[in-house]
Amino acid sequence: MINAVVAGLLAGYGLAIPVGAVAVLMVNMTASTSFRTGAAAALGAATADAGYAVAAVLGGGSLAVAVRPVLGPLRWAAFAILTAMAARGLVTALRRRPDGVGSAVAHRPITPLRAYVTYLSLTALNPWPAVYFVTLIFGQQAQQPMNRAESLAYLSGITFASVSWQLLLAGGGRLLGSALTSRHGRTVTAAFSSCLIFGLGLRMAVG
Asked: Where are the domains of the chain?
């Protein structure tokens, strides 16, 4: 049982720790809103990871076969959404007034519920977790088949790893927002993150 939990933790952190476009976007959003909103976004991303892990345990090879034909379209759909969000972030930063009153364009506030749904959807568009977890589970089953209790422990480890890392990113984003409150600081970080998100999204799409 302990071995299954440890294997799940390693699998979860292995997927979550590499910082991708969604993680950068979440950190930047948390920096400009609140930890509550960032935490909701983190839980949305973790829910998508956990969902793919559950589907991999339950579906196994059939999931891999189902996802393979749409890998390309899913990658490009995610890239299109990331590009739009990066562009909006850059435009908003450039239009921010020097007095900090706001931008020339009013945007709908980001609520925790909206952040949760947005990052759940955006993370779910990435097919990599499905392939990743199916591959790991096939390897695990080949070495030593897991029973129901061990599968549950394995999934619990994956979920804990994903949630803890995403919340750590959200907390880091909030600290960053508290430190960089000036107009110049916000503009520079927004512009940098927008360019980074676009680059990471493009790499995901063509990779």
From this structure: 2-206
Q: CB–CB of 119/22 below 8 Å? A: yes
Give me the phi and psi of 19, to 5 degrees please. -80, 115
Q: What is the DSSP string of 13-64?
A: HHHHSS--HHHHHHHHHHHHS-HHHHHHHHHHHHHHHHHHHHHHHHHTHHHH
The CA-CA-CA angle for residues 48, 52, 58, to 5°, reads 140
What is the tens place of the pLDDT at every residue in 91-141?
A: 776 775 554 444 433 445 689 999 999 999 988 887 777 777 766 766 555
Terminal CA-CA length for the chain:
36
- Residue 107, token pair as written in the block: 């945007």
Confidence (pTM): 0.70
